[in-house]
Design brief:
By secondary structure, the chain is of the alpha+beta class. The protein contains 6 helices and 8 strands; from the N terminus they run ααβαβαββααββββ. It has a 4-stranded mixed beta sheet, sandwiched between helices. The model has no long low-confidence stretch (mean pLDDT 81). This is Glutaredoxin family protein.
């Protein structure tokens, strides 16, 4: 830190230079220094004082922004993690609204319904790096994470959502004959009961299907990550 007494010395010196000295009827008064001489002296004092000022602390460099979240293998479409359950009405309404907005662009959409397969929740948590419970829906466009219902609404109202989906493949107008567009079918191992029977161990939990006795449609549904 600089010495405060140095500032006091500077101020006193400046006053002596700028305030004229009274003559007191002296027969031979001393000639007052010219204004240019005063300016040179004051400037030299200011330069000397500035060298004693503490250096400003260096500004901290801005923290680098985190890399964007991406979903490999989905660069040519839209992926929506959602739910069709009505247990939480606000969540159901958000999911329905987002799907309706995205379907209006008639592009390929992979709807991953967590109510049909809870593994979708685990999959999404791994992608976002979050173990806590997350609100649905969550949307990826062109392999890049966009956000939830509020982000989709804002982008749609601003006209930016249309730009994001431009160039993506159009949705298939033909409904899958195997699943009827639901992307799941009954498990052929347990016939949807989620239980299998063998003479050695009796009944056991089926490992081929979800807790609902469903498997992903082999014709139209993408394999899990």
């Amino acid at each position: 830190m600089y010495d405060p007494s140095w500032l006091q010395v500077l101020v006193a010196s400046f006053r002596r230079l700028t305030i004229p000295t009274p003559s007191h009827n002296v027969p031979h008064p001393t000639k007052t220094p010219s204004i240019f001489h005063r300016v040179r002296i004051v400037n030299s004092l200011l330069r000397a004082w500035s060298t004693r000022l503490p250096h400003a602390p260096p500004q901290l460099s801005a923290a680098p922004s985190p890399p964007p979240i991406s979903l490999p293998g989905t660069e040519n479409g839209v992926v929506v993690y959602c739910t069709s359950l009505r247990v939480v009405r606000s969540t159901f309404e958000d999911c329905r609204a987002v799907r309706s907005i995205l379907r209006g662009f008639r592009v390929s959409i992979d709807e991953r319904d967590a109510s049909m397969d809870s593994n979708y929740v685990t999959e999404l948590q791994g992608i976002l790096g979050c173990k806590a419970k997350m609100n649905l829906p969550r949307v990826f466009i062109g392999g890049r994470y966009i956000g939830g219902a509020e982000e989709i609404r804002q982008l749609h109202e601003a006209g930016e959502l249309k730009k994001l989906v431009e160039g993506l493949p159009a949705a298939d107008s033909v409904v899958c004959q195997a699943c009827g567009g639901y992307r799941f079918i009954l498990c052929d191992e347990c016939s949807g009961s989620h239980k299998c029977y063998s003479e050695k161990v009796g009944f056991r939990t089926c490992t081929a299907c979800t807790e609902n006795g469903l498997i992903r449609c082999p014709s139209c549904s993408r394999a899990p990550l």
